[in-house]
UniProtKB/TrEMBL annotation:
Keyword Signal annotated: yes
Residues making up the signal peptide according to the UniProt record: 1-24
Name of the molecule in the record: NlpE N-terminal domain-containing protein
Organism name: Flavobacterium nitrogenifigens
Entry keyword set: Signal
Length: 143
């Protein structure tokens, strides 16, 4: 009986790891206009260990400041294709990492495996909620 329970726990643990592999990876989005004079870039990496790193870059001609870099890091978890982000004030913030992703949520969007049509659906994260005002409703695509 003990062996059966241990085997069952190992199998369920492996299935949970396989589930997070689907979400883990690099995501990015670049918005540019005026022949690369104005650029906004979002880069997010979801690591398999449940941590993430984020980089936001903005270069606007005539902007104040003309170039801006912002960083954030923390932990992520998933439930029903919604990824929830959190940042620990003690461990995840320093002089470089200043963005607070606590209470941020993003929906994982991909083509339904039952959809056999030729329709192309890019795998993406669509941010639904965030205390970072410019992150709401942003789509970033899996690389």
């Amino acid at each position: 009986m003990k062996h059966f329970i241990i085997t069952l726990l190992l199998i369920s643990g492996l299935s949970l790891t396989a589930q997070s592999n689907q979400f883990a990876g690099d995501y990015s989005r670049t918005l540019s206009a005026d022949e690369e004079k104005n650029i906004i870039e979002y880069k997010l990496t979801l690591n398999q260990d449940g941590t993430f790193v984020f980089h936001y870059y903005r270069k606007l001609q005539g902007g104040t400041p003309p170039e801006e870099n912002k960083y954030g890091k923390g932990k992520w978890s998933v439930k029903d294709n919604v990824i929830t982000f959190s940042s620990d004030k003690k461990d995840d913030f320093d002089a470089k990492n200043t963005l607070d992703f606590t209470n941020s949520k993003a929906r994982f969007v991909t083509k339904n495996p039952r959809d056999k049509s030729d329709k192309v659906v890019k795998t993406k994260l669509q941010f639904l909620e965030s205390e970072i005002p410019w992150m709401k409703r942003i789509d970033i695509f899996k690389v």
